[in-house]
Amino acid sequence: MTANHDGGVQLGLSRSIRASLPGVEGCTVIDDRPVDSALYSTHRDFFDATQPETPCLLLDLDIVAARYRELRAGLPGAAVYYAVKANADPDLLRHLVELGCGFDVASVGEIDACLAAGADPASISFGNTVKKESAIRYAHERGIRLYSVDSVAELEKVARAAPGAEVCCRFIVRTTGAQWPISRKFGCTEEDAVALLRDAVSLGLRPRGTTFHVGSQQREPESWAIGVATAARVAAKLAAEGIELDLLNLGGGLPVRYEATVPSLETYLTAIERAVAESFATRPALIVEPGRYLPGDAGMIRSEVVLVTEREHGLRWVYLDVGRYNGLVETDDEAIAFPVVAVRADGRFADQAAPAVLAGPTCDSTDVLYERTPVSLPVDLRPGDHVDILATGAYTTPYASVGFNGFPPLPSRCFRSTDG
Ligand SMILES: Cc1ncc(COP(=O)(O)O)c(C=O)c1O
């Protein structure tokens, strides 16, 4: 993967360069971001055929479908509720409805998007535990039955605005291994979960079960076992009081292979199945809520190089037309290391690559993608060349600002790479 492709493509991170940069402490050039050449070539073909303006997210719906089917097959009987926050593209939502997928929504806007795509309200979970009462009423009027809560005040809102609704209580799990942690902001204690679900009965609601989130881009498959064991204890305590829970929502967290070391889906699902079998005498109905996993590696952002220049300490800086504020928020603190590929449409790159700091186009000094861990790019990269940012189907377009510095939100184009 180090040689130039025929079409002038060079896989920017493929060579084993590990260098420290003068004046930048602890700085190494990363060389371990995997490029799936089969996936990549479908994106390239679509770009070549359609030539959309850059920057642009290209999303292969057939890859999303493949991920959905893998998940269904690997966790038999579990319902898949796609977490819409990851990417709410209308074509993507319609495609998921056709596949039979359910949805986890966070807001009225996401409810509308799912209903417009043809989703059955019975297959929608209002999973955000911080909702306006008016939003709960809106959801209830449209037939949404399942609501997550993690506080008494939220439970009371649901009881008032969605009388008789089904509730799931979200408890907190303390995990390591998440590249984008979701700790602290959501979730109650195990004891509070028992109390809340007990209170649900007296408020005329139907306690269905519990839910948790192990953190996004979770690299430790055993993390789910912590939540599953807690859920089983909550269910057992309530069962002893005559309150039967029949649902376990395993949340999101399944990772995309931004790094070669991420375990396989099978490893995760095996760990989850084992945890459920060990913790529950009777298997509850399962929901899994992947956000990142479904569209993540189905997406690629094609960007254009705007400027290449040398700055302090002789560092090469490469500025793209996409950055932190038009889609790449998850490069914050360099949390997510997207694979990148340099592309020259009308020629070949030099054989050598060298480290570069990668930055976005806005005037904000925080609009820097990778500086602590510069990326390896061809030494003769220049304005007009392209840089493809891979595995960017999740948490990119929805995060783009409406027009910071006058740069428009990141557009997206869905396509099908196969006939199926
Ligand atoms: C309630 C809930 N479910 C699912 C998800 C999706 O998580 P992930 O993208 O890690 O799969 C999130 C993400 O924030 C969430 O808050």
UniProtKB/TrEMBL annotation:
Active site: C363
EC number, as in UniProt: 4.1.1.17
Pathway: Amine and polyamine biosynthesis; putrescine biosynthesis via L-ornithine pathway; putrescine from L-ornithine: step 1/1
Keywords: Decarboxylase, Lyase, Pyridoxal phosphate
Gene Ontology CC terms, in alphabetical order: cytoplasm
Cofactor(s) this protein cannot do without: pyridoxal 5'-phosphate
Sites of N6-(pyridoxal phosphate)lysine modification: K85
One Gene Ontology biological process: putrescine biosynthetic process from arginine, via ornithine
GO MF annotation: an example: ornithine decarboxylase activity
Domain Orn/DAP/Arg decarboxylase 2 N-terminal: 64-294
Residue runs in coiled coils: none
Catalytic activity: L-ornithine + H(+) = putrescine + CO2
Family statement: Belongs to the Orn/Lys/Arg decarboxylase class-II family.
Name recorded for this polypeptide: ornithine decarboxylase
Record organism: Saccharothrix syringae (Nocardiopsis syringae)
